[in-house]
């Protein structure tokens, strides 16, 4: 636990905070120098994503509050493994997840409520945990990513993966990648199943098993650039990133619906800097930060008060246009599906 | 310890202090080894025998050893290790021999050049191979140009692709192991053999290669163990379709969070490698004894 030393400075800043409180929207958070000398450790998504989040959220946060924030790059799975391993003695205060890990984290008692964020209160109910243990600060739309020079008309459906003329030009992520699981679920939904009835998904995917299976987003540039791949299921954010790198690709929303991935934040139970983390999360939800994230990543803002510039809103689907999958059920079945996938698909 | 033994026979009182010195000298190393290797290894071993309720179980081992999928995983890992080792021997022995016997002042420069792949990060190197191994990549084009195949070949996301990429990076290990040994074998021995009537090829085989066996063993062991335990190359170049033990352990630990089964796979991998190493060592020594 964090032991608090009561000094004159604490007393003074405490008094100042008391005076300032009624004037501020989010309690004490916006107060300059509130976290002077404190260090916040958060997991991060690595690469340019981490830089954009740093620029949109943490840099200003640090400058105003006096805290020093470090993002440690790790994928959501690795981050959750780390969180589990450090249960009871967390070295990382705050976690960012993109694969529904926050639900398991809460269920396994690894999180604690985010406290004092006024912005979190005003979020739609499906974007936060009822007990306040996690919050979605962005949403990513998944769908069809295609080579614009190979399609006359953009693809419209998950059924397009089975068009005979595309044989040998399809790629899809392995099931250990979060989007691989979502692709399986969407195939199931397309062919009459759902999260509870996954068989149609496996049957459909088995027809694609001679196509290219890749592991991570890092394969995308090579696949589209070199590997004669024309169509794959992925997301708006990575499409945008690769478009910027000069690849002739585009994103299309499938008629079966775009599965949405919540990008969440939560605080490790017993984190020494839980108060700093709560304030940082509140900052993530601020409209300024949300616009910057949408600009940099093409991720959909979750704070309804966020207004995107017109040009940007064309590329970033509104949160109401996205469907969400039953993440709790998916997480429950993940291990069994991975085993089955290894035998039936990756053979 | 063995060097201390004769001293002990000569003078018991001095021997005791010598062995005390030996113990004291070894203590820090042994202690570190025990704390940071032996103990975690035992903990890992125990993890594999633990049922969900905490009791002792052999279920996970039974699951691995009776399931065709996992046995294929182990088999694929061994094939990858053996093939990588064979390729590095094939290319490494002539290269190391030439470098060791070379009288040019470029010899040292060339030796440093051969270690170059080791200086490049495994991830960066794997990305390089990804570009080369794709269906439209350089290797596929080269094979068609040489009339080895008549259609584009996809080596990316396959076991052969992984083996090619691993052999490239591990070749320097083999060359360095053999280079040191070849350097220590005097060329005069070959000349002596030839003066007694052996042809150059026979002299090379009977004298130099026999003497270089230690280097061949240590080189093979290093290459083999590094190949089967490598993660970045199999996961990037091989991908999910060419899954091996290292990538499976990673997935179990990071994605499925089944640490007990991951521990079982780690233990089985370790034991298999130890057995193979002992057999290989015996075979190399055995062939020498038979002559």
Oligomer: heterodimer
The most extensive contact between chains is: A-B, 26 and 24 residues
Query: What distance separates the N and C termini of chain B?
Result: 32 Å
- Count of DSSP helices of chain A? 13
- Summing up helix and strand content along with how strands pair, one would put the structural category of chain B as mainly alpha
Instruction: Tell me the CATH superfamily of the largest domain in chain A.
Output: Periplasmic binding protein-like II
Low-confidence stretches of chain A: 17-28
Q: What is the CATH topology descriptor of the largest domain in chain A?
A: D-Maltodextrin-Binding Protein, domain 2
Task: Note down, in words, how this protein is organized.
The complex is a heterodimer of chains A (347) and B (291). By secondary structure, chain A is α/β, with parallel strands linked by helices. Chain A folds into two domains: 8-139 and 261-320, D-Maltodextrin-Binding Protein, domain 2 (3-Layer(aba) Sandwich); 141-258 and 323-344, Periplasmic binding protein-like II (D-Maltodextrin-Binding Protein, domain 2). Chain A has 13 helices and twelve strands. Chain A has helices at 8-20, 47-65, 76-85, 101-107, 118-121, 178-190, 199-206, 220-225, 236-244, 274-284, 287-297, 310-313, 327-344; strands at residues 39-44, 68-73, 94-97, 111-112, 134-147, 171-173, 212-214, 231-235, 249-252, 259-268, 300-301, 323-324. In chain A, the strands form three sheets. In chain A, strands 3, 4, 5, 8, 9, 10, 11 and 12 form an eight-stranded mixed beta sheet that branches. The longest helix of chain A has 19 residues, at 47-65. The radius of gyration of chain A is 21 Å and the shape is globular. Chain B is mainly α and 291 residues long. Chain B has two domains: 1-47, no CATH class; 67-290, MetI-like fold. Chain B is 80% helix and 0% strand. Chain B is built from 15 helices and no strands. Chain B has helices at residues 4-10, 12-47, 59-66, 68-101, 107-114, 116-119, 122-133, 138-145, 159-184, 187-195, 200-211, 213-229, 232-238, 245-256, 259-290. In chain B, α1 runs antiparallel to α2. The chains are: A alpha/beta (347), B mainly alpha (291). Chains A and B meet through α3, β7 and α13 of A and α7 and α14 of B.
């Amino acid at each position: 636990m964090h032991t608090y030393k009561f000094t004159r400075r604490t007393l003074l800043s405490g008094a100042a905070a008391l005076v300032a409180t009624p004037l501020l929207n989010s309690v004490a958070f916006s107060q300059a120098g509130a976290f002077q000398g404190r260090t916040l450790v958060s997991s991060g998504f690595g690469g340019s994503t981490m830089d954009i989040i740093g620029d949109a959220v943490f840099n200003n946060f640090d400058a105003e509050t006096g805290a020093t924030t470090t993002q440690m790059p790790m994928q959501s799975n690795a981050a959750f493994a780390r969180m589990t391993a450090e249960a009871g003695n967390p070295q990382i205060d705050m976690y960012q997840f993109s694969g529904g890990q926050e639900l398991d984290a809460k269920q396994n008692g690894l999180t604690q409520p985010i406290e004092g964020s006024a912005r979190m209160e005003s979020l739609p109910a499906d974007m936060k945990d009822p007990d306040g243990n996690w919050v979605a600060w962005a949403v990513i739309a998944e769908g069809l990513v295609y080579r614009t020079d190979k399609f006359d008309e953009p693809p419209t459906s998950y059924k397009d993966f089975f068009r005979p003329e595309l044989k040998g030009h399809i790629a899809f992520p392995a099931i250990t990648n979060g989007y691989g699981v979502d692709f399986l679920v969407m195939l199931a939904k397309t062919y009459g199943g759902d999260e509870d009835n996954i068989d149609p998904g496996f049957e459909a995917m088995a027809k694609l098993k001679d196509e290219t299976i890749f592991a991570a987003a890092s394969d995308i540039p090579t696949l589209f650039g070199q590997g004669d791949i024309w169509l794959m299921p992925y997301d708006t954010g990575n499409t945008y990133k690769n478009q910027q790198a000069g690849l002739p690709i585009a994103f299309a929303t499938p008629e079966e619906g775009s599965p949405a991935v919540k990008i969440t934040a939560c605080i490790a139970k017993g984190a020494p800097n839980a108060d700093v983390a709560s304030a940082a999360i509140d900052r993530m939800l601020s409209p300024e930060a949300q616009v910057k994230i949408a600009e940099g990543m093409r991720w959909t803002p979750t704070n309804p008060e966020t207004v995107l510039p017109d040009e940007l809103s064309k590329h970033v689907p509104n949160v109401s246009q996205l469907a969400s999958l039953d993440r709790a059920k998916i997480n429950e079945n993940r291990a069994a599906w991975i085993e089955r996938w290894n035998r039936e698909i990756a053979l | 310890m063995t060097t201390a033994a004769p001293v002990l026979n000569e003078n018991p009182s001095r021997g005791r202090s010598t062995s005390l010195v030996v113990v004291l000298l070894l203590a820090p190393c042994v202690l570190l080894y025990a704390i940071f290797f032996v103990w975690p290894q035992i903990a890992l071993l125990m993890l594999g025998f633990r049922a969900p309720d905490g009791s002792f179980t052999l279920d996970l081992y039974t699951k691995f050893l009776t399931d065709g999928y996992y046995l294929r995983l182990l088999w694929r890992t061994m094939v990858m290790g053996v093939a990588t080792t064979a390729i590095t021997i094939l290319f490494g022995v002539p290269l190391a021999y030439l470098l060791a016997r070379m009288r040019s002042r470029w010899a040292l420069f060339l030796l440093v050049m051969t270690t170059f792949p080791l200086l490049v990060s495994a991830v960066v190197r794997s990305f390089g191979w990804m570009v080369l191994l794709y269906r439209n990549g350089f290797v596929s084009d080269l094979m068609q140009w040489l009339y080895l195949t008549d259609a584009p070949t996809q080596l990316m996301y396959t076991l052969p692709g992984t083996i090619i990429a691993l052999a490239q990076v591990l070749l320097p290990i083999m060359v360095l192991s053999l280079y040191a040994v070849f350097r220590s074998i005097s060329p005069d021995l070959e000349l002596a053999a030839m003066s007694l009537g052996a042809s150059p090829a026979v002299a090379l085989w009977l004298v130099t290669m026999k003497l270089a066996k230690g280097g061949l063993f240590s080189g093979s062991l290093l290459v083999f163990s590094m190949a089967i335990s490598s993660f970045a190359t199999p996961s990037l170049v091989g991908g999910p379709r060419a899954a091996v033990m290292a990538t499976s352990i990673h997935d179990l630990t990071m994605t499925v969070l089944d640490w007990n089964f991951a521990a079982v796979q780690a233990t089985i991998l370790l034991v298999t490698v130890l057995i193979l190493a002992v057999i290989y060592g015996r075979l190399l020594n055995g062939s020498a004894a038979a002559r």
